Automatic annotation (TrEMBL):
Subcellular location: Membrane
Record protein name field: Phosphate transporter
Any GO CC annotation of this UniProt entry: membrane
Main location: membrane
Source organism per UniProt: Leisingera methylohalidivorans DSM 14336
Membrane topology: Multi-pass membrane protein
Keywords assigned: Membrane, Phosphate transport, Transmembrane, Transmembrane helix, Transport
Amino acid sequence: MSDADPRTQWNTLDKDLNRISQLELATSYASRPLVAPGIALAFIVLAGLGAGVFFGSSAMNMVVIAAAAFGAYMAINIGANDVANNMGPAVGANALTMGGAIVIAAVAESAGALLAGGDVVSTISKGIVDPTAVASSDVFIWAMMAALISSALWVNLATWVGAPVSTTHSVVGGVLGAGVAAAGVAAVNWPTMGKIAASWVISPVLGGVVAALFLAFIKAKIIYQDDKIAAARRWVPVLVGIMAGAFAAYLALKGLKRIVKIDLETALMIGAGTGALSYVITAPLIKRQSEGMENRNKSLKALFGLPLVISAALLSFAHGANDVANAVGPLAAIVHATEFGDFAAKVTIPTWVMVIGAFGISFGLFLFGPKLIRMVGSQITKLNPMRAYCVSLSAAITVIVASWLGLPVSSTHIAVGAVFGVGFFREWHMERRLKKSAEGLPPEKRIAPEERRRRKLVRRSHFMTIIAAWVITVPAAALLSAVIYLLLNAIVG
């Protein structure tokens, strides 16, 4: 029997247990960053296994299995990057919590993709490359595989550095680079590429101008009125009607292609009818909600909160309906070419391929989306419900205008451009008020120009990072795609 003091034994045991608990805590903390990539990897593997169930595991069908895995990887990256543009303003304005935004966006994105997702995609995305210039279905399959891998890698890199980029332009760049590597420069439809390049400038500028105009209207007609509540009762139902009409036209034009084909004139009529109905319904609701509210800006934020949440959900639905093909378009083309050997026709996206896209976007949003949501919502400029509402409204209206003009625009560029537009308008408006208030003051009491420069309301570092990412997205994805195509061709050839 040991003569050691029992108290010493207990003290030693307590110290050992404490060390073990600290080790467990450290292990848990160190492994936490690996949870999200682990879940993402599991989904990618399941997508490949699911494709194997449909196609078997023959040598050619292994290509489809690999393409399904990369399609899932692309969808995850779209969820991590692109969806932030829809939910970021609502979160930044404190109209939604991060968790609420992720749940709403996941449901709306999946519903948009599965219920109204585009059912037909050109085999060589949007006429960028001439199909007759491609030598064979094998060449086409490897070109599409390279486009899929390169665009997914580029969007992943952009998410990692915190830059919201266009997944549409990433896919376009991927198809361009693989097409040039496979069929030469002459195979590229350069007029189409010219339109896409023009959209780099037109999309964000148009989105920013529309958002700034709506913010100027809200400031003039509501915020700076003596009786803010009376002004809100008059104009908030009008703004909600405009929002409802814009989204109805947007969804009719872009999100219902699977159900029925609607031209621009019909979509505008649907939008006008929906907007009028929304005004009739909203006016008494706003009047009732505003009763007893104090005559200050905080009350106005409450009135804009619910419309902002609804607009964010509608944007996510439309995004899922319109952009899911970015993830699964090249995958659908590979599946079609593998099954039928035909790569010059229109391709119907199979349901199981659409499911990979929809669930991949939701997983990407849930696992990696908060970083870009914070960037768009609060790190570019400060948003409140009125400013965020202008961003959402601008996104819907700008897409309709661009469709009317026949321009291939990016929802990412429009939404982020609208955030910048709101921020730069606030800077201009603040500068104007400072100059006006300084009139008649002695020079020593005026704010120095250096101090005014420090009070910028848009973070220039984020502005330059995002603009640089936008400019290099297509060439970077194209170069990466060309390199991947040549590597794949060397390995399988």
